[in-house]
Specification:
A two-stranded parallel ribbon has the order 1-2. Helix content is about 70%, strand content about 0%. The relative contact order is 0.03. It has about 850 residues and is mostly helical.
Amino acid sequence: MVFFARMDFSQGNLFGYIEDLQELTIIERPVRRSLKTPEEIERLTVDEELNDIERAVYLLSSGQDIQGTSVVANLPVLMRQNPAETLRRVLPKIREVLHVAGVEMQLTAAVSFLTVLQDESVSIHTYSHSFLHIILQNLEHRDAGVSNAWLETLLAVIEALPKETIRHEILNPLVSKAQISQSLQSRLVSCKIMGKLAYKFEAHIVKREILPLVKSLCQDVEYEVRTCMCRQLEHIAQGIGTELTKTVVLPELVELARDEGSSVRLAAFETIVNLLDMFDADDRSQTVLPLVKSFCEKSFKADESILVSLSFHLGKLCNGLYGIFTPEQHLRFLEFYKKLSTLGLQQENGHNDNQLQLQTLEQEKKYISVRKNCAYNFPAMIVFVDPKNFHLELYSIFFCLCHDPEVPVRYTMAISFYEVAKLLNSGVYTIHKELVTLLQDESLEVLDALVGHLPEILELMTTNGGENSGAESKLLSIPDLIPALTTAEQRAATSLKWRTHEKLLQKYACLPHIISSDQIYYRFLHRMLTIILTNNVLPVQKAAARTLCVYLRYNRKQEQRHEVIQKLIEQLGQGKSYWNRLRFLDTCEFIMELFSKSFFCKYFFLPVLELTHDPVANVRMKLCYLLPKVKSTLKIPSDKHLLQQLELCIRKLLCQEKDKDVLTIVKRTVLELDRMDISLDAFQKRFYENDLLDQEKERQEHLLLEMEQLEKEKQQSEGRSTNVNDKIFEKKRRDNKTSSVLAKSMTLSVSGSSSGTSAGKEDKKSKLVRSQSFSTQALHPKYSNIDKCPNKSSATGYTSSVSGMGKSCMLSFTDDTFRTRSTGNSGNATFPSSSSLTTSRNSFNSADQKNNGNKEGQSRKMSIF
């Protein structure tokens, strides 16, 4: 109704609408004409009673081209079902049809023949007898695409054929096919076949029967043949060995490198670079190095065609010839690389103002490719100059490439950034600004390339901080890094590339190992919760939920943890949108994966069960799928009351559920729950590994509490000592002020200062006593909330270890002491091993053992927060 209300049916506009309708009619007419007539349908109809072989023969004999192509495409299936009849009846028909077949059927046949070989439907002897002749007949097809397709099939067949078959069916005819009197296509095919044959025969056979043909083709009158044969010399050299390569192949390459055709020279250069490992030091210094220097000199003058290839292979070339370079040559090649890295940017930067010329589009593309190749080779050039000389020799080039105006160049730098960081090792702090620059790049392609190894890069940035390595260097490197990380996430969130956003959120799970808990809480954690609540892409929401759980896992403050848990329950679990409640269940899965069973049972078990009353069937259905995992978090008898709650909810679902799909899943879930075994408080053999892992998680969660308590004690003691020192200083200042006026007042002031000093000493003594008796005053109230430990001796030993630490141990608990490092690129959190706990656990004295021996009767379930 709205559409018609807005249309103007005045006389002027009415004719416009009629013309539009006529155009639509014209567009539709070809569709009607393309429909098949009854006669055509009759010709395309096949008797349904025919079997597969008979139908294939019929369609190849009297069907249309599209039907014959379908039969050829189905040839591998026919060979698997009935190989004997297919070879006897269908393959001869295909051979006849291929003589007059079009391009589509030819390409389909080449692929089908290769598939039959790979499927091994028949023996290699049968295959060579039945299929090889057809392949060889179609090699010289007039269409280049068809000829290449059959050639690829033949090269794959050569790998499987026996030597005698190759000699008689392929090598002997090849002698005549490679002659100058044959067609260009025939000689090109011969070049590629000889490159493959070099691997199949011994060196002396290759030398006697193949190398004469190779030399002939290297001197062919057509540059296409010389180029093709030159590119096959690499394969031939690897097949004949080092000696023959030096005496036969290298002279041919030297001659081809001076060829009049630019494509031939380019092929010769690339082949020489790829064969560097096969040349000895003399060949490299006397033959290869002069050629390379000649290529470099001509690349900017007479032969720009080789410039792109030269920039691509320059890293491999410099490192391959490193041992024979003089210092002067080393410097010359380095300067050449620097010149290539800024090629095409001089005019933009204000250089060469007197030679301003408009560059063609082709030149610009070439220069961009050259700079992109330089970015690709940058790690190799670091090795070439030695990482110790990076800042002096290559940093300026690194800066230019990271700030290049073209996206492909910056994209390549982002991909290779991790390799550069690994090579620099302790000097990685010098490229921190470039990391920030790439994180803030305007192109999301650059950001996506950088994010792939972001955890490893940040790990190197924080562990190798130069001279001031450690916590101080981390804090110094963070201020501009954190805004860059937040900006990158926001840019990915506002784009349409949700996969980049998902990948970024997954990698951000490494941040607890990089920056402090407070920085994560204020800059990242709430952002993850916002993404879960507002983003519309499910994979992004799940990635944010998992990363949020990792942040919660490593959060160091009890108050912040309680706040996040409360928000998860209220805004997700009890949210108005059913979509949020579904995400709450996803988050609970991550909680069960990352946290201990006791943690989940304490904070999330009952909120999850409340969703059994959810008004939306999809939420109840997802909950039913999750119930087996929920039940696996229980331990009997300490969680018996939670098991009763679970059983009660299931009974209500069985009795009250009205949705038939949910009810079906409930019944299936009940059967699965009945088959499940619940783990006990004591260790069982079948659950031993899981119980150990859960106990380790529980220890780490409890350790966070202890570290928080130690930090509070440390802050309190430092605050009190600061107050005492301030009072003493103020007292002395006032006393010094009045000392020049009254001697009596000075005496009183001195006595007052002494009393203040003695008071300070008494205060220090009291703090020392409080520190030494930390286990009885600080730990015991906290442990009074513990119900039952999964391993009594371990819990007691751990408590005794903490109680025996004292003040010096309290001061040693820094943020990085128990922070683990990320070892993969998936963003998954990794937990610290128990080795650090074992060391401290074995260091307590016997007196502490006796004092804490009465804790062995405590229950398993720990009050984590």
